[in-house]
User: Fold this.
Amino acid sequence: MTDITRELGAFVAGLTYDKIPKAAVEVIHMGFADCVGVMLAGRDEPPTKILKEVLAPPAGTSTLMFGAQTASAADAAWINGVAAHALDFDDVAIKGHPSTILVPAIIAEAQALGSTGREMVTAYAAGYEVWAELARRDPDHYHSKGWHPTGILGAIASAAACASLNKLNAEQCTMAIALGASQSAGIMANFGTMTKPFHAGRSAQAGVLAARLAKAGFTSSLDALEHPQGFLSAVSPNGRFDATSAVEAGKIWKLAVTKLSVKKYPLCFCTHRALDGMLDLVAETPVTADQIESITAVTSRRNTKVLRNHQPQTGLEAKFSMQFAMASCVVAGRAGLTELVDDFVIRQDVQDLMKRISVQADDAEHPTMPGYSPFDQVTVKLKNGQTLQSKEVVTVRGGPDFPLNREQLWAKFDDCARVGNFEGSSLKLFDAFMALDQVARVSDIPGLSSGKK
Assistant:
């Protein structure tokens, strides 16, 4: 058995900015910028507003969603994390949504500490690589056991990121990681409700707390990840986890390979291949809902389980519905923030079309993309007997092999800022995070101040 927990603690403690590959730094910049954008878009969403009202946080070191209100770093990470995931428009990688947890935790704690941009970049790298290390150690899908990977992996990664910011030593980093493991939580049954973004916010908050407790001398198990009754064993769907191979963090950089998939659509990422295919199809051959007899979307078995809502009635439910995704493409010609609202979802034409849409599971698995079928494809049968079929979609727009360019990233950021009624300069904020390693202090970022005295 490998000392995974200790070795990850040593990796986090020893990581410095100069050890991070340049390609990885560029991914981190994108992760920060995209996450801040969707955070702005989600700051007035019901889950964000309710949590803020219930917590009623007193003023503190850290800014809430780039507005005038402040809170403690832990509360800010929690609230900002919920805002970043409220619309399910945040990036995807390593079995979950890394930035929606890492970015809120890092920004909140960086403000409390007065960190530099390079320290924030380093903290993100620490959290991402710890997350990736754990994700690779189980060949099975956490979703199949009901776990939300973002919730269970995110708390550990957030702890690693905040431990890096606090410059903890190797043993303290190990303690923080183990503390994060005991705060891992999140079940799939709550997808399509306000509780899904709660998972992200809670994990961001857990990392701040874990690092601070470890710094103060709070103890935890030095083998909390690999122990027979530890994290890997506890969450493994089929017990096929790997607790023996060497730790790759810091040696094989996943950030430079796996990177991030930036969402073009504010729906569960499991719909995005089919969305690309369907939107291309209707752009080439425009059709109306009343012309369609049926639509069939083929996707992976894992995806069919995640997309649990077949006749959604709310915008939140629609985010986890292939039926809605396909219907939106036909009725609106797009699937964006303006469609993911209750009024559009319950429109009679949308509801009627969803009843004619089915999802077919493909049990074959892509050789290098766990959880995905070799391709997704959409078939549309028209009432006149004609059949339309999309291409076989393998590469998702916004994914590592088909990334959004800077202009496209900026367009999404600006749109999100407008949706969130952001009053500052969205371009200055975007530019700051796209060059975060050049920022001397967190307080130099528009809308942020440093709580360090």
Observations:
- The chain has 18 helices and six strands.
- The chain has a mean pLDDT of 96.
